[in-house]
Amino acid sequence: MAESSLFNQTGIQLTLLLMLIIIVAGLIVLVFKFLSVYSYILRRREYLEAQKKIKELSLSEIEEYQKREEELEFELPENELSGTLPSSDEKGMVRNINSVEEFRFFPSKRRTSSFLNYVSPQLTRLILLFMGTAIFWLLIGTSFGLYAGIKYVAPDVDHTSWLSFGRLRPAHTNAVFWGWASLAMVGLSYYVVTRVSNVENYNIKFGYVSLILMNVAVLSGTISLLAGINNGGGEYREYIWPIMGTFGIGVAFSTYNLFKPVAKRVVKEIYISNWYIIAGFMFIVIVIIVGYSPIWQDGVGETITQGYYMHQAIGMWFMMINLGLMYYFLPQQLNKPIYSYSLGALAFWTHILFYTLIGTHHFIFSAIPWRLQTTAIIASMGMLIPVAAGTTNFLLTFNNAWYQLKTSYTLPFYFMAIIFYFTGSFQGTVEAFRYTNLLWHFTDFTVSHSHLTMYGIITFMLWGFSYTLIPRLTGKEPPKLLVGIHFWFALLGLLMYVIALMIGGTQTGLMWMKKKPFIDGVINMFPFWLWRAIGGLFMWISHLIFAYNFYRMVRTKESFRIPRTPSEILAAKKQFRNTEFNS
């Protein structure tokens, strides 16, 4: 009877609809990419035909190309038509005679490369160090996560205390939170704030102090968690206070650094990106102080503080800064302005209004006062306003530019991140309903939801931003095929992960509501935990590919160009070492 009535619940119906939206969005990207692959195959075929034709060029054809190349390179002497006599106006018809060096009615040739570095080499180096160390922690943190996932299906794989699940899990979450995502966001913010403010006014030494302190905090925090030294204060709050204090000081140095260009900006207005970014840096310092201050850390007060800390860290740090970065990078990638500045302002202020009130929705039916639980549920419903405004703004910015999904290797990350932003945030609202909270809380469904948001939204955004920015800093692109493999492995792995845990978590909740023994739920979860491990493996492989792509963007560049002009054709012919070019 419980199963038959399950689908009559609004929360369940909305969750199914949201997952359907994700799958449809993935299929849309797949169709665009199929068209892109087909176009690539045709171009590759054309390239091979051109190479074959060049190899078989006859001597007369080569001479014809050489003659044509000389004709194209011919330049008319400056005085060929005007002569050498000085300019004069004996009848006084022209009042002012100037010498013009070039024809003004012809536009000057623009640089063909789209990679323009607008920041100083010193700042470029700092940003790349932030990104490089962030990727290091992505690999370390998700390796912990993958191994923890494997332990669900093979719990006796080892008996080392440092690698026990209770230590691996917080080491995983904190490494990807404070190591990967935080360092990447700070590095990207250093670029965006510069461009939006039109002035570079950073203290580079402070930037390096911030980089070192944040990395030292994550390194010492990871070691302490694996050694069994932790705060024990709740999720994402496992670092002991000296370590988290070090992290907070590191962020504070960057907060000061980012305030300076905004205060000294050349333009009068503060673009919406800087609203989000500066607000995020202000909030995280407050969140750390509130979360670790011992004043209210007892009894129910600690539970309320935990809800505040956990949700503000996600919503007012990770989400706030990434949305600000999206407002800068998405219009640039589409080469068009954001659809509506007003929608952006609405999303910003309602995000601040509602997100700061929703932490308690994780503790429905707890000892927390009922009025606080109800307030959190209402605020969770209110979060639909900024989510809908932001999603609408981003998707309408895509209007008349959807075709770019076919050829761009960055826009699929942007598009899926936007879809995950809507579905993951909406699903968080649905999970706050009293029935769904009763069904899903303390089950693997909550783990699914956290990955749908932190991975689907934050990490996909950061990947898109990374593939956008790093080539601008280095002038080197990643291998497009590997970027595509990275995208699909990450997306398919995430879908395996979240769908399996959503189904398994729902079944576990139903069994608990029927008063089934706890061990029955554990046994029932085994196949879903297996799919969790498989999905996690796909995701982990995509991270290795991303790390290699970062290396390629920093170190090397490979591409092929179809010879079309006479000079290119002749140069390609020389590469085949034909005898007619030998001296």
TrEMBL record:
Q: Where is the Cytochrome oxidase subunit I profile domain?
A: 103-583
Name the residues that span the membrane: 12-35, 126-150, 175-194, 206-227, 239-259, 271-296, 308-330, 342-364, 376-399, 411-430, 450-470, 482-503, 529-551
Q: Provide the leader sequence positions.
A: none
Keywords of this entry: Electron transport, Membrane, Respiratory chain, Transmembrane, Transmembrane helix, Transport
Sorted alphabetically, which Gene3D superfamilies does this protein's record hold? Answer: Cytochrome c oxidase-like, subunit I domain
PANTHER family found in the cross-reference section? CYTOCHROME C OXIDASE SUBUNIT 1, CYTOCHROME C OXIDASE SUBUNIT 1 HOMOLOG, BACTEROID
Indicate what this protein is called per its UniProt record: Cytochrome oxidase subunit I
Give the species this sequence originates from.
Chryseobacterium gallinarum
Provide the organism lineage as a comma list.
Answer: Bacteria, Pseudomonadati, Bacteroidota, Flavobacteriia, Flavobacteriales
